[in-house]
Amino acid sequence: LTPEESADIIMAHPYDGADLLRRYKLPKEIIDIAEQHHGTSLLKFFYVKAKETRDVTESRFRYPGPKPQTREAAVVMIVDSIEAAVRSQKQPTPERIRQLVSAIIRDKLQDGQFEDCELTTKEVWRVGESACETLTGLFHERIEYPELKKEGELHANHFER
Question: Is residue 48 part of a domain?
Answer without folding.
Answer: yes
